[in-house]
């Protein structure tokens, strides 16, 4: 079977939901030929019903694929591609890893996805696909009802999980780190409340807070005594993952519990754990399901966990090492390769059945 994976330009989603699954399936020897590329080869031409209007998609090249995977399709043109592919007898899978119509106001993507309706276009693509693949059970309940979807959780490549872990260091200055951009997490850091500044204030000179990404107004938001250390975002995901283990000793993963975040993957805590970084995290549905990291519900919990992790290096290392071993045992891409293959095969079966019924 030949599978063509058409990806977006979002580096993280491309890495975890397209490139690494393709690599894992190929290396597992599952008799699937996988091709990865950005976008699809199409023919644009005037619409016969509106010749003076904009060009429309008149043809799309499946390049010999039995299954085409569209990652986060969000335009009418991609919906047209989906329909044209199905008309050729090609199965179409839509891959989606976020609740596209639940972004909160203040999120950088809210205007495009909610106010301009891009999220609704994406959901139209989801409905018409032969199958949808998702990263969480809540997304499966939303987009994959009635056997229309398949859950494939996020995982980590072995080469990343086997890098020298953070807990092997003995730092004089303990770095508490967070990865992300405040603009795409407008309400999340505040979940730590006074817990983070309390821990930092108690251990001034022994600890610091760092943000890998864009910190924005994090100091004012968190009422910190000092500016966070800002580490530039690393686009290369292997380099990003390596840097987490080289720069952080403790990783924080605060999430406001809302509709959007309840559908988000466990990826941040998984990344911390894979790199041997002790994690403190909110009790979101996926973080609870993963079962890694220290649960913090209230500011007092954040203060308690961070204080102990700073003061008790042996405990911090013991917890981090145990979590890393669980990643190695259960959450590598080699563990999810068969799930991806099963999803693509199922889509092929669904399309073949639909074509027989329609013949």
From TrEMBL:
One of its GO terms (molecular function) is transferase activity. The keyword Transferase applies. It comes from the Bacteria. The keyword Transferase applies. Residues 241-340 form the Spore protein YkvP/CgeB glycosyl transferase-like domain. It holds the Pfam family Glyco_trans_1_2. InterPro entries: YkvP/CgeB_Glyco_trans-like. Keywords: Transferase. This is Glycosyl transferases group 1. The lineage of its organism: Bacteria, Bacillati, Actinomycetota, Actinomycetes, Geodermatophilales.
